[in-house]
């Protein structure tokens, strides 16, 4: 996975953590179907300083098994990939890596009681332990990501990634599409396309409320997009 290079523009605050919380409430009120959620689901949301794309795999019992969170900052900085693993619904592993700075990362493992059994921060020239405050922060982030993922899944907010080539948009699944986008998103895409070499990567959210463009970049997202077998 490469760091997103340029063209990352802050879009409309379409799917934010606050709106996700509202989606969860509505979904709980209106949930009358016995059909469970999909076992593999991709979604995302807008954070204060960047974009989060989530890929989630559940067990056959519809408990969380793996969540992969790809965080891309708006301006500068490296893309951060955080993997969360669960056992019987309980947090078991947190592994944070950087897309280009491979000598940086964090790993935390937890036992059945939720206690840390292993912790390590990888720095360019050494490894070190994390403080208790840092551990709590990582646990809080894991809980937050799980809650947001639950709400996004319940609200049917889906992530779609695609390639843009000479005006033709093809999803990573190979389907040619023409997504209905907001005027602002259309202007954003047109500006980026005018400065590109006819090669762009797109990511957008589709939901009952409409579609929202998340990212336009000189990167082929399809090259690294996780599949169910990857998680």
């Amino acid at each position: 996975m490469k760091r997103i290079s340029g063209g990352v523009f802050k879009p409309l605050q379409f799917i934010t953590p606050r709106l996700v919380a509202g989606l969860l409430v509505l979904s709980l009120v209106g949930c009358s179907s016995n059909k469970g959620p999909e076992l593999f689901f991709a979604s995302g949301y807008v954070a204060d300083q960047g974009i989060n794309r989530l890929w989630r795999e559940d067990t056959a019992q519809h408990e969380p098994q793996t969540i992969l969170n790809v965080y891309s900052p708006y301006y500068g900085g490296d893309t951060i990939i955080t993997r969360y693993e669960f056992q019987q619904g309980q947090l078991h592993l947190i592994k944070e890596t950087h897309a280009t700075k491979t000598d940086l990362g964090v790993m935390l493992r937890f036992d059945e009681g939720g206690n840390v059994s292993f912790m390590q921060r990888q720095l360019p020239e050494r490894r070190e332990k994390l403080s208790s405050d840092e551990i709590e922060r990582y646990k809080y982030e894991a809980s937050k990501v799980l809650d947001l993922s639950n709400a996004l899944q319940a609200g049917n907010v889906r992530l779609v990634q695609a390639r843009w080539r000479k005006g033709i948009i093809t999803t990573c699944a190979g389907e040619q599409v023409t997504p209905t986008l907001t005027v602002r998103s259309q202007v954003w895409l047109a500006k980026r396309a005018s400065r590109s070499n006819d090669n762009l990567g797109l990511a957008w959210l589709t939901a009952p409320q409409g579609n929202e463009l998340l990212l336009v970049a000189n990167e082929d997202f399809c090259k690294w997009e996780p599949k169910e077998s990857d998680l």
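The chain has three helices and 13 strands. The radius of gyration is 18 Å.
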